[in-house]
């Protein structure tokens, strides 16, 4: 499901002001990805994927070189736990 207008508004208010320019090309135009991607973590002790521990990622792409900024959606205050 694509991000709701409310979540996109939170991204624009809480994250975009901190994304000044792309660290690779210097561009200052970005696109907020339409989805939150949930990435499982890898447990280093067992070298296995732990599906109980995930990283909910908000991704913001540079419109020029497509470098992607990744923010933790819960810690950034975009979604609730
Ligand atoms: Zn760039």
Give helix % range: 10-25%
- Total discrete domains: 1
Structural class given helices, strands, pairing?
mainly beta
Query: Could you give the distance between the termini?
Result: 18 Å
Biggest sheet strand order reads: 1-2-3
How large a portion of the residues is in β-strands, by DSSP E?
A: 35-45%
User: Please, what is the oligomeric state?
Assistant: single chain
Q: What do the pLDDT scores average to?
A: 93
Report the C-alpha radius of gyration, rounded: 14 Å
- List the total number of helices: 1
| Shape type | globular
Number of strands: 3
- List ligands, each type once: zinc ion
- What string, H for helix and E for strand, traces the elements in order? HEEE
Largest sheet: 3 strands, antiparallel
Please mark out the parts with pLDDT under 50 across 5 or more consecutive residues, or reply none. Answer: none
Describe this structure in words.
The protein has one helix and three strands, in the order H-E-E-E. It has one helix spanning 5-14, and strands spanning 30-43, 48-62, 68-72. The mean pLDDT is 93. The chain has a three-stranded antiparallel sheet with strand order 1-2-3, with no helix packed on it. The two termini are 18 Å apart. It has one domain (5-72). A hairpin with a 4-residue loop joins strand 1 (30-43) and strand 2 (48-62). The radius of gyration is 14 Å and the shape is globular. With 81 residues, it is mainly β. The structure holds zinc ion. Zinc ion (ZN) binds at residues 22, 24-25, 27, 62, 64-65, 67.
């Amino acid at each position: 499901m694509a991000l709701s207008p409310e979540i996109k508004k939170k991204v624009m208010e809480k994250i975009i002001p901190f994304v000044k320019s792309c660290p690779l090309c210097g561009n200052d135009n970005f696109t907020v990805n339409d989805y939150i991607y949930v990435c499982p973590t890898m447990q280093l002790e067992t070298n296995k994927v732990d599906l109980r521990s995930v990283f909910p990622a908000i991704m913001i792409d540079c419109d020029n070189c497509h470098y992607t900024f990744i923010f933790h959606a819960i810690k950034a205050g975009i979604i609730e736990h």
